[in-house]
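hey m, so remember when u said the tokens were messed up on ur end? i reran from scratch. heres the input so u can diff it against urs
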Amino acid sequence: MESRFFADILLNRHNAAILDRWNALDLPDGWLVAGSLFQTIWNLQSHQPPEAGIKDYDLFYFDPHDLSAAAEQQVQARVESVLADLGITLEACNQARVHLWYEGHFGHPYPALQHSRDGIDRFLMPCTCVGVRPDDVYAPNGLTGLYRGTLSMNPLTPHRALYLQKTASYRRRWPWLRCEDAA
């Protein structure tokens, strides 16, 4: 299923371009993650263009040597420069520093992470816990739930209000998605 997933996400021309320029991004423990991946799959299953409605393209990396916002902004600027011609919104996030701002932004504590995959593990829904880089797919919960459109709360991130907000948003765009747990 990983080869199918990789082929499907490459149908999104922006995902393909990001992965084609991967080495130029120079992201330690870098991964293309989140909505640009699972939303591409859901768009394809809904017979929509692969890029439809994807608001941004998230890149995770892990740099424990500089946890400053300034360093993260420098990486963001480099990513934007390398991919400027795509005309998309990009967000580069150093997973080594998420614990410094997460609680202030989302209202919940967040543990210090050891690598980028820890951040992928903590997306609100297990089926959306996916990341790719050239020739590598990370899907700690498998890909079956993603293709089935099965939404449930991630026990690693049990933030019910945030989960319900995301679920409602996703179901407005892809009404065929189904929730495993009661809202």
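this time it looks ok to me. The chain is about 45% helix and 15% strand. if urs says something different then somethings off w ur setup not the seq
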